[in-house]
């Protein structure tokens, strides 16, 4: 089965993709990870990407598409794969259609912006020992300092509410046209993110027909 996962930051898309990957024994292909791999292995497309990265420019669609095509040609993708973070644009989706890998289903993990802001802005981390907390779901004893070492907890820059809202705006702008694109092809299936991880997983497995 060839699957694409969509989902806003904080919705648990990556977690669901990994759980499905283990269940079906197929690789999860993340754009960032495979670009790093192509750079490390100095593949043809990796070398091309490197020239853009070293000059501080964005890696263009044509190179990203080439790196994805290189990755999908590997033996471990013969029985299926999961794409996480690709495609991000309609031209990328159209290029994917032209590859030999036919997409079977597109799973969109849906969660309200308000819930995502609450989830992400409630995260806290200990700068000393790295322990993670959440003001609502996994609070420390006093909700201010680390239970393990007593250091005052901090909020990561990425979890600041204004930053989260900005990331969500970018996500919606990028993804909504893609959802329409795949809906028109009859491939889009939506899963409502639940408070409990296992409930979201059960709903995800159900749309994929995993027993």
Question: How would you describe the overall organization of this protein?
Answer:
47% of the residues lie in helices and 14% in strands. The chain has 8 helices and 7 strands. The chain has a 5-stranded parallel beta sheet, with helices on both faces. It has a two-stranded antiparallel sheet with strand order 5-6. Helix 4 runs parallel beside helix 5. The model has no long low-confidence stretch (mean pLDDT 92).
Lateral strand order in the biggest sheet: 2-3-1-4-7
**Span between N and C termini?**
15 Å
Largest beta-sheet characterization? 5 strands, parallel
Might you state the CATH topology name of the domain at 2-26 and 79-111 and 164-208?
Rossmann fold
The portion of residues forming beta strands comes to 5-15%
The number of E-state strands comes to 7
CATH H-level name of the domain at 2-26 and 79-111 and 164-208... which superfamily? Answer: P-loop containing nucleotide triphosphate hydrolases
Tell me the number of helical segments per DSSP (H or I, 4 or more residues long).
Answer: 8
Shape: globular
Quaternary state reads: single chain
* Overall helicity: 40-55%
Give the helices and strands as they follow along the chain: EHEHHHEHEHEEHEH
CATH architecture of the domain at 2-26 and 79-111 and 164-208: 3-Layer(aba) Sandwich
Q: CATH class of the domain at 2-26 and 79-111 and 164-208, anyone?
A: Alpha Beta
Helix-strand category: alpha/beta
Q: What radius of gyration results from the CA coordinates?
A: 19 Å
| Unreliable spans | none
Mean pLDDT: 92
